[in-house]
């Protein structure tokens, strides 16, 4: 049957190619037209597969190459060609093989005054031109000269023909050789003039297609360097900018504005960043290496060339999310084998001391309890008991849903964001007891000497004291806390800086859970940074509490990107408004006149700070440049800096101009975070999401090929946001995400040590190793104390399975630290579930694997300039000590038969919402890669899926559907893959936490806050407990205890499973398109105009109207053929019945029966 149908179609096609009989040909064309005018594209593809394109082209040649071409045949034929050709991927080749280009061109030439015939030729030429090779051939054969005879200044006549000609030209100009030819013939300036003319005269906006078409021509021609130069010297920027301003208020004109913005961005002259060198401001001499600082002076001349930029993001973080199958590891032996040790076996012995829990003696046990009993008797125990329930952010949502501040996003946010009354926070504690202070001071004794020598550093703070006392007039502008200043009275102009801190601390209510300014200051005093920071950022010192309201994802304002681009273009065409003054520069000496009025002050020389340079562009606009990771020239993403001397209510625009990633969650609802000192002193110590008019786009700064080390020049991206500060003369801090410094971690651990319940919690803090920068990397052990001294309980104690957790290998991922804090708070807490968990497992935690990176404001690397999460295969003891020793500890555990049950490395994810895990599975990897290997022979425990499944039910921010268990080659040296393969841990994970927010579940539509991140950390623990309960080795006793506790949790789990089934997980994966067409790749040609969206409609419409409209030229002739052609244009039963000459199957539609439904 199918064969018969196919032969029916083939019969039609072969008749078309070979017949000389006009009636016959017209009948076939009529049938084909009818068949293709209904149904889906599948019919057309079916026809193409049966040689339809070739048949039509051959028929065209036959009909056109006669002395008197018969247009009653040609016109329906050309329409069919346009329709079929645009859907045939190999059309260009077929056209060239049959040498149809010249025939069609000369047909068009003959019809320059006959618009109906001409427009048909133009449609087909446009389809030809969509193939670069055919387009180039057309250009060589004079197609552009022909088109410029048709494209005229503004006219009301034949605008469709003009439009069709412009669309052919735009298609032709995608070929670079055509563009060069066009430039040489002066067509660029001609196009500009034509565009101006149409813009000026088309006041009723009836010719938007023509105007946009001309812009597309300009867009494509300016892909070559010489065209951009001519465009600039012909004032193209000014012309397009000005015309676009007339179009901004009319929605139908958006395509024009968008195209103008693309051209302006592309033609904006490329510049190097305004820096002397791309290398990080400070460098670190690696052990054993000669300090080399190749100063990269940027050559000015190699930015522009005609090479279209290939947008490949080489940034490793993006690689992490690349889902290309060719990255999958398909070597089964590699997946299956367990490599040997990367070091001598004897070395492992040193890690025995890192497992003191395995050799706990009865005596130790007793002294342990006694010691702590003593300290518990200290009157007024500092931080009180450690009340911990699973921080349930959901609870907060119910409490405060009224406060979800839609307004927190827009210009008027301040009102709600700042005036919401402080809520009473459950995690109250008092951390001002003298006992603790004493301890803190004692701890930093070793630093007393050095601090004394730094008295001079406490300069400039004298003026802060008196205003501080007079509350109303206190000027926080001059406030900065020096670490150690509390301990080193330093008379500067008669007033000690420590007094200021003292006064401040008197005001501190000490009500920020697990934070102590005293501890923080003490710890910061011994934190070692490259620049030897002596100044504390206020928020880290004072502490942060989550604000009492949720913050929604920021709704993107329509057109924000193009508005910002136009503002940027104004710098070029209205240079008079540009100030362009460097107001902050860590490389040079600070500019002397930064106290100038109307100028913000910036500062970043504190822990995790990394602003390198600030340039005042206009009165209320600043370009900011971030420092590169130490010893590198890249990895700009994290930011943290102080800004002061602001005016209230004024909108300030900030542009971070050296971002590197191709896209950002800042385009999808994420806001940066801000902390105001004045607000904090008024009892609102919150990092909050702020800023509006936020967007992220490619800018005109480029890294030259030379600076990029031989690679092709790479574009930078701008993150822009606008802020109205809540107070004038405040000190505010802005950051990429909620900061969490190394000193914050260390002082937090001090509090953990102080507040633990030693009768219940076995807790040890050790030093895993020293970092390159000389900072201790803490290693923690947490489990439950044995229930008694009995040998059974001691046995149970030392045989608990291990869980190894770590975080912050990537310093910019501060969200991972907040999740880790949630995990630790929960594990150390008094919640019965936590008690149970401690009885189940021994937790080994390395909360910060890259302290140096965190301290020095890096985003990705350590001081060696290496991404430490790419060093796990063969870490160097010298260069990557924290990785080397973490791996050593894991080797050791494995060597004594105690490889961890679960390993998880906490990370932050900058491109996705929600929280999810990456794990490792051989089978899933092989399946995904489409491997032909018989996977049935590969045995694999599917246990790796259990934990994420549980988390999907218990953790509101977690999404199973985003999880992946593929082993990628590019990940072979990450912790996850190495721990899975070399240590043999089945459940080896990377936890990816969003920086942005959730588009799923309970927190759908909200940005993530520290409370939600901490909750995730706690819920991860709960997940571990449930995992254990489900395991075979779970004791009956544990089961019973858990059953009593977990009922409410089960309810939550059920509630969640219900919710997650109602809100489909399908929605979660990819970002929905922005309302505004977010265009990053200004050079790409693959946007909408490449398809033929308008062509079919044009053809249809002209065909229908042609009869009535009667193009005026050649009236009589036109009339005759129009009626004769269009009279039979649509298939009718009458026509079909008339086609007696053809031995057709019963009905013509039967020709395609089957192809509609066949899986072609
Ligand atoms: Zn990471």
Account of the protein in words:
The chain starts with a helix and ends in a 22-residue tail after the last helix. The protein contains 44 helices and 22 strands. The model is unreliable at 291-323, 372-478, 482-496, 1051-1070, 1072-1090 and 1107-1160 (pLDDT under 50). The strands form five sheets. The chain has a seven-stranded mixed sheet, sandwiched between helices. Strand 7 and strand 8 (621-626) form a beta hairpin. With 1160 residues, the protein is of the alpha+beta class. Helix 10 (143-150) runs antiparallel to helix 11 and helix 38 crosses helix 41. It is globular. Zinc ion binds next to strand 20.
Quickly list its features.
single chain; alpha+beta; six-stranded mixed beta sheet; 44 helices; 42% helix; globular; binds zinc ion
Question: Within the largest sheet, what's the order of strands?
Answer: 16-17-19-18-20-22-21
Reported for the largest beta sheet, the result is: 7 strands, mixed
Total DSSP E strands: 22
Q: If helices are DSSP runs of H or I spanning 4 or more residues, what is the number of helices?
A: 44
Helix content: 40-55%
Radius of gyration, taken over Cα atoms and rounded to an integer in Å:
35 Å
Measured by DSSP, the beta-strand proportion falls in 5-15%
* Average of per-residue pLDDT values: 79
What is the terminal separation in angstroms?
16 Å
- Principal-axis shape equals globular
Low-pLDDT segments: 291-323, 372-478, 482-496, 1051-1070, 1072-1090, 1107-1160
Structure ligands: zinc ion
What structural class is derived from the secondary structure elements?
alpha+beta
């Amino acid at each position: 049957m199918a064969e018969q149908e196919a032969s029916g179609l083939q019969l039609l096609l072969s008749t078309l190619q070979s017949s000389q009989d006009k009636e016959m040909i017209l009948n076939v064309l009529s049938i084909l037209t009818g068949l293709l005018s209904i149904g889906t594209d599948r019919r057309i593809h079916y026809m193409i597969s049966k040689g339809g394109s070739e048949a039509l082209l051959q028929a065209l040649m036959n009909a056109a190459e006669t002395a008197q071409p018969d247009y009653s045949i040609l016109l329906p034929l050309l329409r069919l060609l346009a329709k079929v050709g645009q859907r045939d991927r190999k059309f260009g080749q077929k056209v060239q093989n049959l040498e149809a280009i010249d025939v069609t061109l000369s047909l068009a030439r003959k019809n320059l005054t006959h618009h109906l015939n001409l427009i048909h030729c133009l449609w087909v030429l446009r389809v030809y031109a969509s193939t670069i090779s055919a387009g180039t051939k057309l250009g060589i054969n004079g197609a552009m000269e022909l088109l410029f005879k048709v494209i005229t200044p503004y006219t009301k006549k034949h605008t469709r023909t003009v439009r069709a000609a412009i669309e052919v030209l735009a298609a032709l100009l995608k070929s670079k050789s055509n563009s060069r030819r066009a430039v040489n013939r002066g067509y660029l300036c001609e196009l500009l003039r034509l565009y101006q003319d149409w813009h000026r005269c088309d006041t009723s906006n009836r010719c938007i297609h023509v105007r946009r078409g001309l812009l597309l021509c300009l867009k494509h021609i300016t892909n070559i360097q010489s065209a951009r130069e001519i465009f600039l010297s012909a004032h193209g920027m000014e012309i397009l900018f000005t015309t676009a301003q007339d179009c901004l208020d009319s929605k139908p004109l958006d395509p024009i504005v968008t195209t103008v913005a693309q051209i302006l961005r592309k033609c904006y002259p490329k510049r190097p960043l305004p820096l002397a060198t791309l290398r990080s401001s400070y460098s670190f001499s690696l052990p054993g290496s000669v300090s080399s600082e190749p100063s990269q002076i940027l050559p000015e001349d190699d930015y522009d060339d005609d090479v279209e930029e290939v947008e490949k993001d080489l940034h490793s973080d993006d690689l992490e999310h690349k889902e290309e199958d060719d990255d999958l590891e398909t070597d089964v032996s590699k997946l299956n084998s367990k490599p040997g040790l990367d070091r001598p076996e004897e070395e492992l012995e040193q890690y025995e001391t890192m497992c003191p829990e395995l050799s706990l003696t009865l005596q130790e046990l007793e002294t342990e309890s006694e010691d702590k009993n003593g300290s518990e008797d200290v009157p007024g125990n500092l931080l009180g008991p450690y009340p911990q329930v699973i921080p349930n952010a959901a609870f907060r949502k119910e409490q405060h849903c009224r406060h979800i501040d839609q307004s927190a996003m827009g210009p008027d946010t301040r009102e709600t964001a700042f005036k919401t009354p402080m809520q009473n926070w459950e995690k109250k504690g008092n951390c001002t007891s003298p006992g603790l202070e004493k301890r803190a001071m004692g701890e930093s004794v070793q630093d007393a000497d050095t601090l004394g020598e730094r008295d001079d550093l406490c300069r400039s703070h004298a003026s802060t004291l008196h205003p501080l006392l007079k509350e109303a007039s206190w000027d926080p502008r001059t406030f900065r806390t020096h670490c150690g200043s509390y301990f080193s009275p330093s008379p500067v102009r008669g007033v000690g800086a420590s007094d200021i801190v003292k006064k401040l601390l008197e005001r501190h209510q000490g009500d920020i859970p697990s934070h102590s300014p005293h501890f923080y200051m003490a710890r910061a005093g011994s934190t070692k940074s490259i620049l030897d920071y002596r100044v504390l950022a206020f928020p880290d010192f004072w502490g942060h509490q989550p604000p009492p309201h949720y913050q929604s994802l920021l709704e993107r304002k329509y057109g924000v990107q193009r508005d910002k681009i136009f503002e940027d273009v104004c710098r070029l065409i209205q240079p008079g408004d540009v100030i362009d003054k460097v107001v902050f520069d860590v490389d040079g000496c600070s500019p002397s006149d930064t106290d100038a009025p109307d100028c913000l002050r910036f500062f970043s020389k504190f822990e995790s700070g990394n602003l390198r340079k600030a340039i005042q562009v206009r009165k209320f606009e600043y370009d900011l440049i971030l420092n590169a990771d130490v010893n590198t020239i890249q990895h700009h993403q994290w930011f943290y800096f102080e800004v002061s001397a602001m005016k209230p209510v004024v909108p300030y625009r900030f542009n971070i101009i050296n971002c590197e990633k191709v896209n950002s969650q800042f385009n999808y609802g994420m806001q940066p975070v801000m902390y105001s000192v004045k607000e904090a002193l008024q009892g609102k110590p919150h990092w909050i999401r702020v800023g509006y008019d936020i967007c992220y786009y490619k800018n005109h700064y480029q890294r030259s090929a030379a600076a990029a080390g031989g690679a092709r020049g790479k574009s930078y991206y701008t993150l822009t946001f606008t802020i109205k500060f809540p107070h004038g003369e405040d000190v505010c801090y802005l950051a990429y995400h909620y900061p969490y410094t190394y000193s914050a971690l260390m002082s937090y651990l001090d509090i953990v040590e102080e507040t633990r319940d030693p009768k219940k919690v076995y807790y040890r803090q050790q030093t895993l190793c020293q970092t390159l920068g000389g900072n201790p990397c803490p290693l923690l052990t947490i489990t439950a104390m044995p229930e008694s001294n009995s040998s059974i309980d001691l046995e149970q104690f030392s045989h608990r399975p291990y869980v190894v957790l770590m975080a912050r290998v990537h310093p910019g991922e501060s969200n991972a630290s907040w999740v880790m804090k949630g995990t630790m708070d929960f594990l150390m807490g008094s919640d019965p579930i936590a008690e149970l968990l401690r009885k189940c497992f021994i937790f080994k935690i390395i909360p910060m694997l890259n302290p140096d990176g965190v301290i020095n404001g890096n985003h990705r690397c350590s001081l060696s300039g290496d991404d430490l999460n790419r060093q796990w295969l063969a870490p160097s003891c010298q260069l990557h000590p924290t990785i080397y020793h973490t791996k050593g500890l894991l080797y050791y555990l494995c060597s004594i038969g105690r490889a961890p049950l679960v390993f998880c490395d906490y990370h932050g994810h900058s491109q996705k919402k929600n929280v999810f895990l990456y794990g490792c599975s051989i089978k899933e990897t092989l399946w995904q890669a489409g491997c032909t290997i018989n996977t049935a022979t590969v045995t694999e425990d599917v246990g790796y899926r259990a934990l994420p499944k549980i988390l999907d039910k218990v953790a509101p921010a977690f999404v199973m559907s985003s999880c992946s268990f593929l082993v990628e080659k590019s990940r072979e040296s990450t912790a996850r893959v190495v721990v899975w393969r070399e240590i043999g841990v089945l459940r080896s994970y990377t936890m990816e936490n969003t920086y942005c927010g959730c588009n799923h579940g309970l927190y759908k539509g909200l940005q993530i806050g520290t409370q939600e991140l901490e909750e995730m950390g706690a819920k991860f623990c709960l997940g571990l407990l449930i995992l254990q309960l489900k395991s075979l080795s779970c004791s009956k006793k544990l089961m019973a205890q858990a059953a009593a506790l977990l009922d409410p949790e089960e309810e939550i789990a059920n509630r969640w499973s219900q919710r997650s089934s109602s809100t489909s997980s399908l929605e979660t994966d990819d970002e929905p398109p922005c309302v505004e067409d977010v265009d990053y790749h200004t050079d790409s040609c693959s946007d909408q105009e490449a398809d033929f969206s308008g062509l079919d409609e044009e053809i249809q419409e002209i065909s229908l109207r042609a009869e009535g409209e009667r193009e005026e030229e050649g009236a009589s002739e036109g009339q005759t053929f129009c009626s004769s052609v269009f009279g039979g244009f649509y298939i009718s039963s009458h026509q079909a019945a008339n086609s007696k000459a053809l031995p057709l199957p019963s009905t013509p539609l039967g020709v395609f029966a089957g192809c509609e439904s066949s899986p072609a």
